[in-house]
């Protein structure tokens, strides 16, 4: 393409005026974008707003200098995460909330700066309408995916909460997650947001053509068929919500949590079920070391004529574990723990302090909230119950892709997700967690029994539908004939590989565009003042 032709193309791309917004406007837009993105998540669940917020956030990155983009990105990230995880302040106060929000803000700012570079470089290399509409949204979305993926695993296991995908657990787009997994699902949502912005700016294509293209893309995503689930059997499950006062600062007596779940379970003695599931920390006394707790577990198993899955804190020598036990008859007239899952990835700064010797002196009063360090479990993630294999995910495990990949490799045909939400009061934290559990059910094609000490609890089918549900802060139980499945979804088989391939594609395109931005043709166009204006 000649310099004149390329100059014309860039002029057309910039035909709306200056590439970027004034810095103050960009900062304001970033704040609003973070709030709008959060509105798409539970409990408001206005799911299209997350896409709108992401589009506004991506647009705000356009035409800034790198330094300005770091500032705007930090403001946008703080707005989004600060609102989304406000539930941390309910009992723990502002300091943990502020620390976690700042950590995620740093990732958000770095990702935002890469968005700015993509806006600057990609149209210079692929300047035609087809190239711009194809490559620019793809690179922008891959950068969004990169930021989510890295912050979700690093440091100390990362914080994989608040993905774009998590806003879409009950929408027409939800079935896509079974095909691609949550990471690529976030990419698709970011791509859709970025594509909308780029399409709006692309004046080289007629308004009618742009409208038709937008309609075609949205229609294709909405009508994409759900991956077919194949039900292999059923398991009758009783899940118990004891409404136990199980929070970190709860004023309870030793054994209160155990008593609360025991009392609710007594109301269903004699029901014909295959398993009884109690939440995380349901037994605040370890039945492996306490005769009274063991006697209650034995009673439940005997009266229900079914195994008990129960969350408790266990010890092995000097090590402490957040555990779930499978308590069942031993075949000799007695009962006991026949299997155990120890949480593989305890939550940093909640269940353990990374580098405690170095970190604790920095804020002793704050870190006294984490008085002990749970050890990292090394057991498998599944229990064998009759002819079924139940995957176990304790609380924050629900966002850990690696744990779910492991339990699928180990043959899980149903998933139990015991959790304790008592530290977050009547906030939307439990609804956010339930939304993630629902996405897992669809992603993996497995029923999920999400059972909490205080709610919200639900039994979810592989299609993402509720078989039953319990409200927060209400004692109760769910008894359902739950479908099991052994098929493998594309998401379970290839989702993570696709995620890293998309990231590699986006970074490669950005690197190529960046390396060629000083070519003679681009220098001529830049010198003519037709590319990005000076950063503000």
From TrEMBL:
Pathway: Protein modification; lipoprotein biosynthesis (N-acyl transfer). Gene3D superfamilies: Carbon-nitrogen hydrolase (3.60.110.10). This is Apolipoprotein N-acyltransferase. One of its GO terms (molecular function) is glycosyltransferase activity. GO terms for biological process: lipoprotein biosynthetic process. One of its GO terms (cellular component) is plasma membrane. It is found in: Cell membrane. The keyword Translocase does not apply. Its EC number is 2.3.1.269. The lineage of its organism: Bacteria, Bacillati, Actinomycetota, Actinomycetes, Micrococcales. PANTHER family: APOLIPOPROTEIN N-ACYLTRANSFERASE (PTHR38686:SF1). The gene is lnt. The chain crosses the membrane at residues 21-40, 46-64, 71-89, 95-118, 125-146, 176-199, 211-227. Belongs to the CN hydrolase family. Apolipoprotein N-acyltransferase subfamily. It is a multi-pass membrane protein. It comes from the Bacteria. Residues 235-484 form the CN hydrolase domain. HAMAP family: Lnt. InterPro entries: Apolipo_AcylTrfase, C-N_Hydrolase, C-N_Hydrolase_sf, LNT_N. The keyword Acyltransferase applies. Catalyzes the phospholipid dependent N-acylation of the N-terminal cysteine of apolipoprotein, the last step in lipoprotein maturation. Keywords: Acyltransferase, Cell membrane, Glycosyltransferase, Hydrolase, Lipoprotein, Membrane, Transferase, Transmembrane, Transmembrane helix.
